Amino acid sequence: MSSVGKSEAGETMLEDDPDQTYENVLAEIQSFELPIEATLRSVYDDQPNAHKKFMEKLDACIRNHDKEIEKMCNFHHQGFVDAITELLKVRSDAEKLKVQVTDTNRRFQDAGKEVIVHTEDIIRCRIQQRNITTVVEKMQLCIPVLEMYSKLKEQMSTKRYYSALKTMEQLENVYFPRVSQYRFCQLMIENLPKLREDIKEISMSDLKDFLESIRKHSDKIGATAMKQSQQQKTFGIALQKQNNIKFGKNMCINDRIIEEKDELILKHLFEEENEEEILTVQDLVDFSPVYRCLHIYSVLGDEETFENYYRKQRKKQARLVLQPQSSMHETVDGYRRYFTQIVGFFVVEDHILHVTQGLVTRAYTDELWNMALSKIIAVLRAHSSYCTDPDLVLELKNLIVIFADTLQGYGFPVNRLFDLLFEIRDQYNETLLKKWAGVFRDIFEEDNYSPIPIVNEEEYKIVISKFPFQDPDLEKQSFPKKFPMSQSVPHIYTQVKEFISASLKFSESLHRSSTEIDDMLRKSTNLLLTRTLSTCLLNLIRKPHIGLTELVQIIINTTHLEQACKYLEDFITNITNISQETVHTTRLYGLSTFKDARHTAEGEIYTKLNQKIDEFVQLADYDWTMSEPDGRASGYLMDLINFLRSIFQVFTHLPGKVAQTACMSACQHLSTSLMQMLLDCELKQISMGAVQQFNLDVIQCELFASSEPVPGFQGDTLQLAFIDLRQLLDLFMVWDWSTYLADYGQPASKYLRVNPNTALTLLEKMKDTNKKNNIFAQFRKNDRDKQKLIETVVKQLRSLVNGMSQHT
């Protein structure tokens, strides 16, 4: 009930029965259960005098309680008195008991002193025993830890670092947790990271030593790998040949010889393999530092750091390996060392790839190889360009093939290397062309340019074995006899075949079909014929010391070389094993080459023949003022004609048209030279006697032309070369000016080939002579008449010349 409710209830009760109400209030106060604040408030908040009445009631209640207490004390007083009396009686007994207890205690203490001493000894022994047990238990925990740590130290001292790391793991995971509360354990725990770092440094140092070692031994590793690859290839080729012969259809003597030869090769290879132990990269290099370092870093959880370091260092080494020496191109050993180092590098990487997990990946090796391949190609392209010796280029090609085959066997793509070989092949052909240019020059310089003399059958067979010459008429002749060509022809033919064989050597092992090789050989041979041999021939033909006889022999030689081109084609077909029916490749251009050389030689013959004629003409020593001729031809002209006769006899071996053209050209040039001699501007005077003497020389020229020095001319075709001179000299000898002037311009004119300007020039030279000639002094009338006639003719000739110029 709330205080408000109680107050209201108290007021109500006080109004009804005040005495009962005060009793209830007192009961509530005595109960000690309910709060008295509200009760007292109900008393004091009542009507006036309620407090006084309440106090009266309270005093009455107190008195009642005092009376009850007094009654209770009176009731228990006797018992209390009895108890005190009993207690006083016990006091004396208690004192006696105390004395007895004290005495007993003294006796016990005296008796227990010895027991206490023995007890303390027992306790001390028990404590020691317990401590010993505890120490034994703790030592049983610590000793394995100490033993493992001692084992760790031993493993570190014996460089078994991977085992040491495993021991560390066991210490940390198994042993240290058992004794972690001891200080020595904390010291050990603090020392383990330092040991791990020491192991990392030591293993890294071992790895550096390993990297330095394989850098030094890369060439040996590569040389071994390349040698094994070459042996396998040679063995495979020999075995294939043996199988082809064994199962082939042709069992001729040559096949048996080849079979025996291949069997010997195979036997030799087997013996080499038995004698020489086949070494692998593991036999040459100790890879344990790599494995150990990889395992150590794997255990340490730092495998990525090791992989990055290894790859970075190997890339640096790759760049060093790929950097060639400046003099590498000078010797084949320089190239071999370069290739063996590269092969050794990638053989090691391939081995690491296959024996480790993740240290080297295929993507990494492919990236490294692509980088290296680009550098290798650039280096070879640059250094091979300095090679001028074809033998060195060929050895370089063989090295590249072995290099490519070796790395291809390890799974590296090498197609770009074979593409590079095609570039080097062109360079090889260029070096061959330069070499053979010197060979051809030496052959031409050593040739005597005369037909090859043969005195017996043996010599004849030797020449035939070198050059495919077929002439039934020559075979029927008895010894001694001569081949039409000179010594240079079989030598040139032999050298062209050797060039083809040398070019074929480069094409071998390029993994190309026989058709492609055949086409390459034909193209290189065409270059030899059209560029090298053609240039040598042209240079030879244009040399000043090459005379007409040599030029004639050169033309004969080129004719036979041209005919031998088909045999060269057959030679190429045979060595490439391409049947004639399936050949659709480039043909040899020897025909055009030798034709061009022959045409040049023919032109050189014409030029040199004219030069020789000029040399003879320059020896002419006419007395242009002579009164009478000598009665015989000039000596220089007779010498010239004799020379021409001997030369044209040599021309009998030339094709008919060449000899005829040369003869016609010589006669025309001689005629022109004689005409120029008459019309020379430095020649001011010509007497009739000189003209008559000159006429004698022209008659000899005409006789030479009519003697048919070269067969094949029809009628007087050759004599027409001197027709201009003949008509001019006839005009002056006969002094038939009236006919000339009357018939000038007529197709049937007797002096049709006489030009008025030419006649005028010669006539003026004779006019000046007549003026100064004292012989005519006694015949002045005849002299005057002739002089007048000359002047009249001169005027008429000048009018013709002027008319011609105006018409033009």
General description of the model:
The structure is a single chain. With 808 residues, this protein is mainly α. 77% of the residues lie in helices and 1% in strands. The chain contains 28 helices and two strands. The protein has helices spanning 3-16, 18-31, 37-44, 50-157, 161-175, 183-246, 253-275, 281-284, 288-299, 303-322, 332-355, 362-384, 390-409, 415-446, 457-466, 472-476, 488-507, 514-541, 548-563, 565-576, 590-618, 635-650, 656-678, 688-706, 723-734, 737-743, 756-771, 780-807; strands spanning 452-454, 481-483. It has a two-stranded antiparallel sheet. Helix 6 (183-246) crosses helix 9 and helix 11 packs parallel to helix 13 (390-409). The longest helix has 108 residues, at 50-157. The chain starts with a helix and ends with a helix.
Averaged pLDDT:
81
**Biggest sheet descriptor:** 2 strands, antiparallel
Intertermini distance: 167 Å
Radius of gyration, in angstroms, nearest whole number: 69 Å
* Total of DSSP H or I helical runs spanning 4+ residues: 28
Strand fraction band?
A: under 5%
Shape: rod-shaped
Record field, number of beta strands: 2
Helix content: over 70%
One letter per element, helices H and strands E, the order comes to: HHHHHHHHHHHHHHEHHEHHHHHHHHHHHH
Low-confidence stretches: 1-15, 245-270, 272-276, 774-779
Q: Helix/strand/pairing class, anyone?
A: mainly alpha
